[in-house]
Amino acid sequence: MSPVDTRRLERAMPFLVIGGALLLWQAVVRVLAIQQFILPAPTDVYEALLEYHDPIFASALFTLENTIAGFGIGIVVGLVLGSVIGTSRLAYAGLYPLLVGLNSIPKAAIVPILVLWMGIGQPPAITTAFLLSFFPIAVNVATGLATTEPELEDVLRSLGATKFDILRKVGIPRSLPYFFASLKVSITLAFVGAVISETLASNDGIGYLMVQAASQFRTPLMFAGVSVIAAMGIITYLIFVMIERRFTGWAMRKHHNPVVVGGG
Amino acid sequence: MLNPRTTAAVMDDAGAGRAFVDIAGVTLRYGAGPETQALADLTMQVKQGEFAAVVGPSGCGKSSLMKLVTGLLPPTGGRVDVAAKNVNGPLKIVGMAFQNSTLLPWRNILDNVMLPLEIVQPHRERLRGNRAEYEKRARGLLESVGLGGLEKQQPWMLSGGMQQRANLCRSLVHSPQLLMLDEPFGALDAFTREELWAILQELWLQQRFTCILVTHDLREAAYLADVIFVMSARPGRIIATHRVDLPRPRTVDTTFDPAFVDLVHRIRGQIAEARGGKATASTRGAG
Q: Which of A46, B18, B71, B280 is the most buried (most CB within 10 A)?
Protein backbone atom coordinates (compact mmCIF):
# COMPACT_ATOMS: atom_id res chain seq x y z
CA MET A 1 0.00 0.00 0.00
CA SER A 2 1.29 3.45 -0.87
CA PRO A 3 1.61 6.05 1.91
CA VAL A 4 -1.34 7.98 0.48
CA ASP A 5 -3.54 4.88 0.64
CA THR A 6 -2.44 4.23 4.20
CA ARG A 7 -3.39 7.74 5.20
CA ARG A 8 -6.77 7.45 3.47
CA LEU A 9 -7.42 4.18 5.25
CA GLU A 10 -6.42 5.75 8.54
CA ARG A 11 -8.95 8.50 8.01
CA ALA A 12 -11.67 6.05 7.00
CA MET A 13 -11.05 3.70 9.93
CA PRO A 14 -13.47 5.28 12.46
CA PHE A 15 -16.30 5.09 9.92
CA LEU A 16 -15.41 1.55 8.85
CA VAL A 17 -15.40 0.36 12.45
CA ILE A 18 -18.69 2.06 13.35
CA GLY A 19 -20.30 0.84 10.11
CA GLY A 20 -19.02 -2.68 10.70
CA ALA A 21 -20.29 -2.73 14.27
CA LEU A 22 -23.75 -1.57 13.14
CA LEU A 23 -23.88 -4.29 10.46
CA LEU A 24 -22.84 -6.94 12.96
CA TRP A 25 -25.44 -5.70 15.44
CA GLN A 26 -28.16 -5.78 12.78
CA ALA A 27 -27.15 -9.29 11.72
CA VAL A 28 -27.10 -10.64 15.30
CA VAL A 29 -30.55 -9.23 16.07
CA ARG A 30 -32.01 -10.63 12.84
CA VAL A 31 -30.34 -14.04 12.96
CA LEU A 32 -31.10 -14.69 16.66
CA ALA A 33 -34.53 -13.06 16.30
CA ILE A 34 -34.03 -10.96 19.44
CA GLN A 35 -37.17 -9.18 20.54
CA GLN A 36 -37.26 -5.44 20.03
CA PHE A 37 -37.84 -4.51 23.69
CA ILE A 38 -34.65 -6.34 24.69
CA LEU A 39 -32.30 -5.24 21.92
CA PRO A 40 -33.64 -3.25 18.99
CA ALA A 41 -31.84 -3.48 15.65
CA PRO A 42 -30.06 -0.35 14.35
CA THR A 43 -32.83 0.06 11.81
CA ASP A 44 -35.41 0.11 14.63
CA VAL A 45 -33.36 2.76 16.45
CA TYR A 46 -33.22 4.77 13.24
CA GLU A 47 -36.98 4.52 12.84
CA ALA A 48 -37.45 5.68 16.44
CA LEU A 49 -35.13 8.61 15.73
CA LEU A 50 -37.27 9.62 12.75
CA GLU A 51 -40.56 9.07 14.50
CA TYR A 52 -39.72 10.98 17.67
CA HIS A 53 -37.33 13.48 16.19
CA ASP A 54 -39.19 16.47 17.63
CA PRO A 55 -39.12 15.45 21.31
CA ILE A 56 -35.60 14.03 20.88
CA PHE A 57 -34.37 17.27 19.35
CA ALA A 58 -35.96 19.36 22.12
CA SER A 59 -34.50 17.11 24.81
CA ALA A 60 -31.09 17.12 23.20
CA LEU A 61 -31.13 20.90 23.05
CA PHE A 62 -32.02 21.05 26.75
CA THR A 63 -29.20 18.66 27.62
CA LEU A 64 -26.78 20.57 25.43
CA GLU A 65 -27.71 23.82 27.17
CA ASN A 66 -27.09 22.30 30.60
CA THR A 67 -23.84 20.78 29.45
CA ILE A 68 -22.47 23.97 27.92
CA ALA A 69 -23.53 26.08 30.92
CA GLY A 70 -21.93 23.66 33.39
CA PHE A 71 -18.85 23.34 31.19
CA GLY A 72 -18.54 27.13 30.93
CA ILE A 73 -18.57 27.51 34.71
CA GLY A 74 -16.16 24.57 34.86
CA ILE A 75 -13.68 26.36 32.57
CA VAL A 76 -13.74 29.53 34.65
CA VAL A 77 -13.46 27.77 38.01
CA GLY A 78 -10.95 25.26 36.67
CA LEU A 79 -8.73 28.00 35.24
CA VAL A 80 -8.78 30.05 38.44
CA LEU A 81 -8.19 27.04 40.70
CA GLY A 82 -5.51 25.65 38.40
CA SER A 83 -3.66 28.98 38.27
CA VAL A 84 -3.74 29.31 42.05
CA ILE A 85 -2.61 25.73 42.66
CA GLY A 86 0.02 25.87 39.93
CA THR A 87 1.69 29.07 41.10
CA SER A 88 1.48 28.76 44.89
CA ARG A 89 2.95 25.86 46.83
CA LEU A 90 0.82 26.70 49.84
CA ALA A 91 -2.37 26.61 47.81
CA TYR A 92 -1.25 23.33 46.27
CA ALA A 93 -0.62 21.75 49.68
CA GLY A 94 -3.93 22.98 51.04
CA LEU A 95 -6.32 22.54 48.12
CA TYR A 96 -5.10 19.51 46.24
CA PRO A 97 -6.19 16.81 48.74
CA LEU A 98 -9.60 18.44 49.00
CA LEU A 99 -10.00 18.49 45.22
CA VAL A 100 -8.98 14.86 44.88
CA GLY A 101 -11.46 13.90 47.60
CA LEU A 102 -14.23 15.86 45.94
CA ASN A 103 -13.45 14.34 42.58
CA SER A 104 -13.59 10.78 43.86
CA ILE A 105 -17.20 11.10 45.07
CA PRO A 106 -19.57 9.47 42.55
CA LYS A 107 -21.56 12.40 41.23
CA ALA A 108 -24.78 10.39 41.13
CA ALA A 109 -24.60 10.46 44.93
CA ILE A 110 -24.47 14.24 44.98
CA VAL A 111 -27.53 14.86 42.79
CA PRO A 112 -30.08 14.20 45.59
CA ILE A 113 -28.27 16.76 47.76
CA LEU A 114 -28.33 19.26 44.90
CA VAL A 115 -32.05 18.59 44.41
CA LEU A 116 -32.61 19.33 48.09
CA TRP A 117 -30.91 22.68 47.63
CA MET A 118 -31.99 23.70 44.15
CA GLY A 119 -35.05 21.70 43.20
CA ILE A 120 -35.17 19.60 40.04
CA GLY A 121 -34.46 20.39 36.38
CA GLN A 122 -31.84 22.75 35.08
CA PRO A 123 -30.01 23.91 38.24
CA PRO A 124 -28.84 20.46 39.45
CA ALA A 125 -28.05 19.40 35.85
CA ILE A 126 -25.80 22.43 35.29
CA THR A 127 -24.17 21.98 38.68
CA THR A 128 -23.46 18.29 38.10
CA ALA A 129 -22.00 19.05 34.67
CA PHE A 130 -19.82 21.70 36.29
CA LEU A 131 -18.71 19.42 39.13
CA LEU A 132 -17.58 16.75 36.70
CA SER A 133 -15.85 19.07 34.26
CA PHE A 134 -13.80 21.51 36.34
CA PHE A 135 -11.43 19.00 37.89
CA PRO A 136 -9.45 17.91 34.80
CA ILE A 137 -9.12 21.56 33.78
CA ALA A 138 -7.81 22.64 37.19
CA VAL A 139 -5.34 19.77 37.47
CA ASN A 140 -4.00 20.21 33.94
CA VAL A 141 -3.58 23.97 34.16
CA ALA A 142 -1.81 23.54 37.50
CA THR A 143 0.52 20.94 35.98
CA GLY A 144 1.31 23.18 33.04
CA LEU A 145 2.16 26.11 35.27
CA ALA A 146 4.21 24.04 37.68
CA THR A 147 6.43 22.60 34.94
CA THR A 148 8.18 25.88 34.05
CA GLU A 149 11.92 25.16 33.95
CA PRO A 150 13.72 26.79 36.88
CA GLU A 151 16.60 27.81 34.56
CA LEU A 152 14.23 29.74 32.35
CA GLU A 153 12.81 31.45 35.39
CA ASP A 154 16.37 32.43 36.42
CA VAL A 155 17.08 33.80 32.94
CA LEU A 156 13.95 35.94 33.05
CA ARG A 157 14.40 37.09 36.64
CA SER A 158 17.94 38.20 35.91
CA LEU A 159 16.47 40.37 33.16
CA GLY A 160 14.27 42.09 35.71
CA ALA A 161 11.08 40.16 34.93
CA THR A 162 8.27 40.35 37.47
CA LYS A 163 6.28 37.30 38.55
CA PHE A 164 3.51 38.48 36.26
CA ASP A 165 5.94 38.80 33.32
CA ILE A 166 7.03 35.20 33.84
CA LEU A 167 3.42 34.03 34.05
CA ARG A 168 2.50 35.90 30.87
CA LYS A 169 5.53 35.02 28.75
CA VAL A 170 6.13 31.48 29.94
CA GLY A 171 3.58 30.08 32.38
CA ILE A 172 0.43 30.65 30.39
CA PRO A 173 1.76 29.61 26.95
CA ARG A 174 3.37 26.55 28.55
CA SER A 175 0.09 25.47 30.19
CA LEU A 176 -2.08 26.04 27.10
CA PRO A 177 -1.58 22.52 25.65
CA TYR A 178 -2.54 21.07 29.02
CA PHE A 179 -5.56 23.35 29.15
CA PHE A 180 -6.83 22.41 25.69
CA ALA A 181 -6.15 18.72 26.27
CA SER A 182 -8.29 18.93 29.39
CA LEU A 183 -11.10 20.69 27.53
CA LYS A 184 -11.78 17.69 25.29
CA VAL A 185 -12.04 15.41 28.28
CA SER A 186 -14.06 17.88 30.29
CA ILE A 187 -16.72 18.49 27.66
CA THR A 188 -17.55 14.77 27.48
CA LEU A 189 -17.62 14.61 31.29
CA ALA A 190 -19.98 17.59 31.34
CA PHE A 191 -22.39 15.58 29.14
CA VAL A 192 -22.18 12.70 31.57
CA GLY A 193 -22.95 15.02 34.46
CA ALA A 194 -25.93 16.67 32.79
CA VAL A 195 -27.47 13.35 31.75
CA ILE A 196 -26.96 11.77 35.21
CA SER A 197 -28.80 14.64 36.83
CA GLU A 198 -31.59 14.59 34.23
CA THR A 199 -32.12 10.89 34.76
CA LEU A 200 -32.47 11.35 38.50
CA ALA A 201 -34.21 14.70 38.81
CA SER A 202 -35.67 16.42 35.78
CA ASN A 203 -38.77 16.73 33.65
CA ASP A 204 -36.80 17.45 30.52
CA GLY A 205 -33.63 16.52 28.69
CA ILE A 206 -32.27 13.33 27.14
CA GLY A 207 -31.82 11.71 30.56
CA TYR A 208 -35.50 12.22 31.38
CA LEU A 209 -36.54 11.04 27.91
CA MET A 210 -34.69 7.79 28.45
CA VAL A 211 -36.19 7.17 31.88
CA GLN A 212 -39.63 7.73 30.35
CA ALA A 213 -38.90 5.44 27.43
CA ALA A 214 -37.61 2.75 29.79
CA SER A 215 -40.73 2.84 31.94
CA GLN A 216 -42.81 2.18 28.81
CA PHE A 217 -40.44 -0.47 27.38
CA ARG A 218 -39.83 1.67 24.30
CA THR A 219 -36.33 0.33 23.94
CA PRO A 220 -35.66 1.73 20.42
CA LEU A 221 -36.35 5.21 21.78
CA MET A 222 -33.88 4.63 24.64
CA PHE A 223 -31.22 3.62 22.16
CA ALA A 224 -32.06 6.64 20.04
CA GLY A 225 -31.44 8.83 23.09
CA VAL A 226 -28.12 7.13 23.79
CA SER A 227 -26.97 7.55 20.21
CA VAL A 228 -27.87 11.24 20.24
CA ILE A 229 -25.81 11.76 23.42
CA ALA A 230 -22.91 9.87 21.87
CA ALA A 231 -23.13 11.95 18.70
CA MET A 232 -23.16 15.21 20.64
CA GLY A 233 -20.21 14.02 22.71
CA ILE A 234 -18.19 13.13 19.62
CA ILE A 235 -19.00 16.38 17.83
CA THR A 236 -18.07 18.61 20.78
CA TYR A 237 -14.94 16.56 21.34
CA LEU A 238 -13.92 17.07 17.70
CA ILE A 239 -14.58 20.80 17.97
CA PHE A 240 -12.17 21.02 20.89
CA VAL A 241 -9.59 18.89 19.10
CA MET A 242 -9.72 21.42 16.27
CA ILE A 243 -9.36 24.35 18.68
CA GLU A 244 -6.44 22.56 20.34
CA ARG A 245 -4.64 22.04 17.03
CA ARG A 246 -5.20 25.65 16.09
CA PHE A 247 -3.77 27.13 19.29
CA THR A 248 -1.13 24.69 20.42
CA GLY A 249 0.21 23.18 17.24
CA TRP A 250 3.73 23.63 18.59
CA ALA A 251 3.12 20.99 21.25
CA MET A 252 1.81 18.41 18.79
CA ARG A 253 5.10 17.31 17.27
CA LYS A 254 5.90 15.35 20.42
CA HIS A 255 4.42 11.91 20.39
CA HIS A 256 3.22 12.12 23.93
CA ASN A 257 0.44 14.51 24.75
CA PRO A 258 0.09 15.99 28.21
CA VAL A 259 -1.37 13.53 30.68
CA VAL A 260 -5.02 14.16 31.22
CA VAL A 261 -6.62 13.31 34.51
CA GLY A 262 -10.30 12.54 34.33
CA GLY A 263 -12.92 11.68 36.88
CA GLY A 264 -16.36 10.15 37.13
CA MET B 1 21.22 65.43 41.43
CA LEU B 2 24.39 63.59 40.62
CA ASN B 3 27.63 65.37 40.99
CA PRO B 4 29.12 65.20 37.49
CA ARG B 5 32.62 64.79 38.85
CA THR B 6 31.68 61.80 40.97
CA THR B 7 29.92 60.16 38.03
CA ALA B 8 32.93 60.68 35.85
CA ALA B 9 35.18 59.24 38.55
CA VAL B 10 33.06 56.10 38.87
CA MET B 11 33.04 55.58 35.14
CA ASP B 12 36.77 56.11 35.02
CA ASP B 13 37.28 53.53 37.71
CA ALA B 14 35.23 50.98 35.88
CA GLY B 15 36.86 51.83 32.60
CA ALA B 16 40.35 51.59 34.05
CA GLY B 17 39.85 47.92 34.81
CA ARG B 18 38.69 48.05 38.40
CA ALA B 19 36.75 44.99 39.48
CA PHE B 20 33.37 44.91 37.75
CA VAL B 21 32.33 41.84 39.70
CA ASP B 22 33.70 41.89 43.23
CA ILE B 23 32.96 38.92 45.46
CA ALA B 24 34.43 39.42 48.92
CA GLY B 25 34.49 36.69 51.57
CA VAL B 26 31.17 35.20 50.53
CA THR B 27 29.65 32.30 52.45
CA LEU B 28 26.52 30.49 51.37
CA ARG B 29 24.48 28.00 53.37
CA TYR B 30 21.22 26.35 52.34
CA GLY B 31 20.40 25.37 55.94
CA ALA B 32 22.00 24.54 59.26
CA GLY B 33 24.88 22.08 59.62
CA PRO B 34 28.20 21.65 57.78
CA GLU B 35 26.71 19.55 54.95
CA THR B 36 24.56 22.38 53.65
CA GLN B 37 27.39 24.87 53.24
CA ALA B 38 27.86 25.50 49.52
CA LEU B 39 30.47 28.26 49.55
CA ALA B 40 33.03 29.22 52.21
CA ASP B 41 34.81 32.55 52.31
CA LEU B 42 34.96 32.85 48.53
CA THR B 43 36.76 35.85 47.11
CA MET B 44 37.21 36.66 43.44
CA GLN B 45 37.28 39.70 41.21
CA VAL B 46 36.51 40.06 37.54
CA LYS B 47 37.43 43.24 35.72
CA GLN B 48 35.21 45.07 33.28
CA GLY B 49 35.33 43.45 29.88
CA GLU B 50 37.22 40.45 31.18
CA PHE B 51 36.40 36.85 30.37
CA ALA B 52 36.58 34.74 33.54
CA ALA B 53 36.10 31.01 33.86
CA VAL B 54 35.29 29.13 37.05
CA VAL B 55 36.25 25.46 37.15
CA GLY B 56 36.11 22.91 39.92
CA PRO B 57 35.08 19.41 40.93
CA SER B 58 31.41 18.59 40.48
CA GLY B 59 29.14 19.78 43.24
CA CYS B 60 31.55 22.49 44.39
CA GLY B 61 28.95 25.21 44.25
CA LYS B 62 29.70 26.67 40.81
CA SER B 63 26.03 27.13 40.01
CA SER B 64 25.39 28.69 43.42
CA LEU B 65 28.06 31.20 42.50
CA MET B 66 26.07 32.10 39.36
CA LYS B 67 22.98 32.75 41.42
CA LEU B 68 24.94 34.87 43.90
CA VAL B 69 26.44 37.13 41.27
CA THR B 70 23.13 37.65 39.51
CA GLY B 71 21.38 38.37 42.79
CA LEU B 72 18.94 35.48 42.49
CA LEU B 73 20.24 34.19 45.82
CA PRO B 74 21.46 36.35 48.73
CA PRO B 75 24.77 35.33 50.35
CA THR B 76 24.72 34.08 53.94
CA GLY B 77 27.82 36.14 54.68
CA GLY B 78 30.21 38.45 52.83
CA ARG B 79 29.48 40.85 50.03
CA VAL B 80 28.87 40.78 46.29
CA ASP B 81 29.31 43.98 44.27
CA VAL B 82 28.58 44.34 40.58
CA ALA B 83 29.37 47.59 38.76
CA ALA B 84 30.39 49.16 42.08
CA LYS B 85 26.95 48.50 43.56
CA ASN B 86 26.04 46.02 46.26
CA VAL B 87 23.90 43.20 44.85
CA ASN B 88 20.76 42.88 46.93
CA GLY B 89 18.19 41.67 44.44
CA PRO B 90 18.06 40.21 40.92
CA LEU B 91 20.30 42.26 38.64
CA LYS B 92 18.69 43.63 35.53
CA ILE B 93 21.72 43.94 33.30
CA VAL B 94 22.63 40.30 32.99
CA GLY B 95 22.44 37.81 30.17
CA MET B 96 22.34 34.17 31.15
CA ALA B 97 22.65 30.87 29.35
CA PHE B 98 22.48 27.35 30.72
CA GLN B 99 23.33 23.87 29.49
CA ASN B 100 19.68 23.39 28.67
CA SER B 101 18.91 25.92 25.94
CA THR B 102 15.44 26.69 27.44
CA LEU B 103 14.17 28.11 24.15
CA LEU B 104 10.40 28.50 24.21
CA PRO B 105 8.93 25.85 21.89
CA TRP B 106 5.95 27.99 20.89
CA ARG B 107 8.14 30.80 19.54
CA ASN B 108 10.27 30.74 16.43
CA ILE B 109 13.99 31.39 16.72
CA LEU B 110 13.74 35.12 16.05
CA ASP B 111 10.98 35.60 18.64
CA ASN B 112 12.93 33.53 21.13
CA VAL B 113 15.99 35.71 20.67
CA MET B 114 13.87 38.83 21.08
CA LEU B 115 12.35 37.69 24.37
CA PRO B 116 14.71 39.72 26.60
CA LEU B 117 13.75 42.88 24.69
CA GLU B 118 10.18 42.35 25.86
CA ILE B 119 11.34 42.43 29.47
CA VAL B 120 14.45 44.58 29.91
CA GLN B 121 14.07 48.34 30.24
CA PRO B 122 14.33 50.60 28.27
CA HIS B 123 13.86 48.21 25.32
CA ARG B 124 10.57 46.96 26.70
CA GLU B 125 8.89 50.30 26.15
CA ARG B 126 10.64 51.05 22.89
CA LEU B 127 10.03 47.64 21.32
CA ARG B 128 6.57 48.29 19.95
CA GLY B 129 7.54 51.53 18.21
CA ASN B 130 10.95 50.35 17.02
CA ARG B 131 10.28 46.75 16.21
CA ALA B 132 12.04 46.84 12.84
CA GLU B 133 15.22 48.23 14.34
CA TYR B 134 15.28 45.61 17.12
CA GLU B 135 14.46 42.85 14.69
CA LYS B 136 17.40 43.94 12.60
CA ARG B 137 19.65 43.69 15.64
CA ALA B 138 18.39 40.18 16.45
CA ARG B 139 18.76 39.06 12.84
CA GLY B 140 22.29 40.46 12.75
CA LEU B 141 23.18 38.52 15.87
CA LEU B 142 21.73 35.31 14.47
CA GLU B 143 23.62 35.92 11.25
CA SER B 144 26.88 36.32 13.17
CA VAL B 145 26.51 32.91 14.83
CA GLY B 146 25.67 31.24 11.52
CA LEU B 147 21.91 31.01 11.96
CA GLY B 148 21.03 33.45 9.18
CA GLY B 149 17.93 32.31 7.30
CA LEU B 150 16.68 30.11 10.15
CA GLU B 151 14.86 32.91 11.99
CA LYS B 152 11.41 31.54 11.33
CA GLN B 153 12.22 27.94 12.28
CA GLN B 154 10.83 26.47 15.46
CA PRO B 155 13.46 25.51 18.08
CA TRP B 156 12.84 21.78 17.78
CA MET B 157 13.72 21.86 14.09
CA LEU B 158 17.28 22.84 15.03
CA SER B 159 20.11 20.63 16.25
CA GLY B 160 21.38 20.93 19.83
CA GLY B 161 24.34 23.03 18.72
CA MET B 162 22.14 25.40 16.74
CA GLN B 163 19.75 25.74 19.67
CA GLN B 164 22.68 26.68 21.88
CA ARG B 165 23.77 29.31 19.34
CA ALA B 166 20.28 30.79 19.44
CA ASN B 167 20.46 30.64 23.22
CA LEU B 168 23.70 32.68 23.11
CA CYS B 169 21.99 35.23 20.88
CA ARG B 170 19.12 35.46 23.33
CA SER B 171 21.50 36.09 26.22
CA LEU B 172 23.25 38.88 24.30
CA VAL B 173 20.47 40.60 22.34
CA HIS B 174 19.89 43.30 24.98
CA SER B 175 23.65 44.06 25.11
CA PRO B 176 24.08 43.05 28.74
CA GLN B 177 27.08 44.33 30.65
CA LEU B 178 27.52 40.94 32.25
CA LEU B 179 27.10 37.54 30.65
CA MET B 180 26.77 34.51 32.92
CA LEU B 181 27.24 31.10 31.31
CA ASP B 182 26.57 27.90 33.27
CA GLU B 183 28.09 24.99 31.33
CA PRO B 184 26.44 26.26 28.16
CA PHE B 185 28.09 23.67 25.91
CA GLY B 186 28.04 20.77 28.35
CA ALA B 187 25.50 18.72 26.43
CA LEU B 188 27.13 19.08 23.02
CA ASP B 189 29.54 16.81 21.17
CA ALA B 190 33.22 17.74 21.06
CA PHE B 191 33.25 19.17 17.52
CA THR B 192 30.16 21.31 18.01
CA ARG B 193 31.58 22.50 21.30
CA GLU B 194 34.79 23.69 19.65
CA GLU B 195 32.77 25.48 16.97
CA LEU B 196 30.80 27.30 19.63
CA TRP B 197 33.95 28.28 21.52
CA ALA B 198 35.07 30.12 18.41
CA ILE B 199 31.68 31.77 17.99
CA LEU B 200 31.53 32.88 21.61
CA GLN B 201 35.08 34.24 21.43
CA GLU B 202 34.17 36.14 18.27
CA LEU B 203 31.13 37.72 19.95
CA TRP B 204 33.17 38.61 23.00
CA LEU B 205 35.94 40.18 20.94
CA GLN B 206 33.34 42.34 19.16
CA GLN B 207 31.28 43.38 22.16
CA ARG B 208 33.68 43.06 25.12
CA PHE B 209 31.04 42.30 27.71
CA THR B 210 32.22 41.02 31.08
CA CYS B 211 31.72 37.28 31.13
CA ILE B 212 31.75 34.60 33.80
CA LEU B 213 31.76 31.07 32.46
CA VAL B 214 31.14 28.16 34.80
CA THR B 215 32.38 24.92 33.30
CA HIS B 216 33.90 21.54 34.09
CA ASP B 217 35.71 21.46 30.75
CA LEU B 218 39.26 22.70 31.41
CA ARG B 219 40.09 23.06 27.71
CA GLU B 220 37.00 25.19 27.28
CA ALA B 221 38.10 27.40 30.18
CA ALA B 222 41.63 27.77 28.83
CA TYR B 223 40.41 28.45 25.28
CA LEU B 224 37.97 31.18 26.25
CA ALA B 225 39.11 32.86 29.44
CA ASP B 226 41.51 35.63 30.41
CA VAL B 227 41.49 34.37 33.94
CA ILE B 228 40.58 30.97 35.40
CA PHE B 229 39.44 30.51 38.98
CA VAL B 230 39.80 27.01 40.42
CA MET B 231 37.32 26.09 43.12
CA SER B 232 37.76 23.55 45.90
CA ALA B 233 35.34 20.74 46.69
CA ARG B 234 32.28 21.64 48.69
CA PRO B 235 32.17 24.02 50.50
CA GLY B 236 33.62 25.89 47.55
CA ARG B 237 36.28 28.56 47.74
CA ILE B 238 38.90 29.75 45.26
CA ILE B 239 42.11 27.74 45.63
CA ALA B 240 43.98 29.03 42.60
CA THR B 241 43.82 31.77 39.98
CA HIS B 242 45.46 31.39 36.58
CA ARG B 243 45.96 34.17 34.06
CA VAL B 244 45.75 32.91 30.50
CA ASP B 245 48.13 34.96 28.39
CA LEU B 246 47.67 33.15 25.09
CA PRO B 247 47.11 35.46 22.13
CA ARG B 248 43.64 35.98 20.65
CA PRO B 249 41.79 34.97 18.64
CA ARG B 250 42.53 31.49 19.85
CA THR B 251 41.80 28.55 17.62
CA VAL B 252 41.61 24.80 17.99
CA ASP B 253 45.33 24.80 17.12
CA THR B 254 45.96 26.88 20.25
CA THR B 255 44.71 23.95 22.30
CA PHE B 256 47.76 21.96 21.13
CA ASP B 257 50.15 24.75 22.11
CA PRO B 258 52.53 23.48 24.88
CA ALA B 259 51.64 26.47 27.07
CA PHE B 260 47.95 25.61 26.72
CA VAL B 261 48.49 21.92 27.42
CA ASP B 262 50.68 22.75 30.42
CA LEU B 263 48.05 25.09 31.86
CA VAL B 264 45.28 22.52 31.49
CA HIS B 265 47.49 19.93 33.20
CA ARG B 266 48.27 22.18 36.12
CA ILE B 267 44.60 22.97 36.68
CA ARG B 268 43.69 19.31 36.36
CA GLY B 269 46.19 18.52 39.10
CA GLN B 270 44.78 21.18 41.37
CA ILE B 271 41.21 19.95 40.90
CA ALA B 272 42.31 16.37 41.55
CA GLU B 273 43.85 17.53 44.81
CA ALA B 274 40.72 19.48 45.63
CA ARG B 275 38.69 16.31 45.23
CA GLY B 276 40.61 14.86 48.14
CA GLY B 277 43.63 13.32 46.42
CA LYS B 278 41.59 10.36 45.18
CA ALA B 279 42.41 10.93 41.53
CA THR B 280 45.77 12.61 42.03
CA ALA B 281 47.99 9.62 41.37
CA SER B 282 46.30 8.57 38.16
CA THR B 283 46.13 12.11 36.80
CA ARG B 284 49.80 12.73 37.52
CA GLY B 285 50.67 9.41 35.97
CA ALA B 286 48.80 10.28 32.81
CA GLY B 287 50.44 13.72 32.70
A: B71
Q: Report whether the peptide linkage leading into residue A97 is cis, meaning its omega lies within 30 degrees of zero.
A: no
Mutate to test the interface with B, among A159, A166, A167, A176 (most CBs of B within 10 A): A159
- Residues of chain B with Cβ-Cβ distance to A173 below 8 Å are 104, 106
**Residues B131 and B166 placed together within one structural domain of the fold:** yes
Closest CA of chain B from A168, distance in Å: 11
Is residue B235 in a domain? yes
Residue A259 within any structural domain of the chain = no
B207 and B284 housed in the same domain = yes
Mean pLDDT across B254-275:
88
Q: Cβ contacts (< 8 Å) between A169 and chain B: which residues?
A: 104, 115, 118-119
**Alpha-carbon gap: B102 to the closest alpha carbon of chain A (Å):** 6
pLDDT at residue A38 is higher than 60: yes
| Closest Cα in chain A, distance from residue B270 (Å) | 30
User: Is the CB of B122 inside 8 Å of chain A's CB atoms?
Assistant: no
pLDDT digits (tens, 9 = 90+) for B197-239: 999 999 999 889 999 999 989 999 999 999 999 988 878 888 8
B223 touches chain A (CB under 8 A): no
For residue B154, list chain A residues with Cβ-Cβ distance below 8 A.
250
Residues of A within 8 A of B105 (CB-CB) are 250-251
Distance from CA of B254 to the nearest CA of A (A): 32
Residue B19 exposure: Cα atoms within 13 Å on the Cβ side: 15
* Residues spanned by the domain of A25: 1-33
Residue A243: count of CB within 10 angstroms of its CB: 13
Q: Which of B94, B102, B115 sits opposite A151 (nearest CB)?
A: B102
Claim to verify: residue A124 and residue A240 sit in the same structural domain: yes
Helix orientation angle between A53-87 and A219-247, rounded to the nearest 10 degrees: 40
Shared domain check, A107 and A5 = no
Instruction: Tell me whether B98 touches chain A (CB under 8 Å).
Output: yes
**In this structure, are B212 and B241 located in the same domain?**
yes
pTM (predicted TM-score): 0.73
The answer on A121 and A29 residing in a single domain is no
A199 in a structural domain = yes
Domain count, chain B: 2
Q: Is the pLDDT of residue A239 over 70?
A: yes
Domain assignment of residue B166, given as a range: 102-176
Query: Looking at the domain assignment, is residue A61 inside a domain?
Result: yes
| Domain end point (choices B176, B207, B225) | B176
**In a shared domain, residues B168 and B73:** no
For B119-155, how does the pLDDT look when each residue is reduced to its tens digit (9 = 90+)?
A: 888 888 888 888 888 889 899 889 888 888 888 888 8
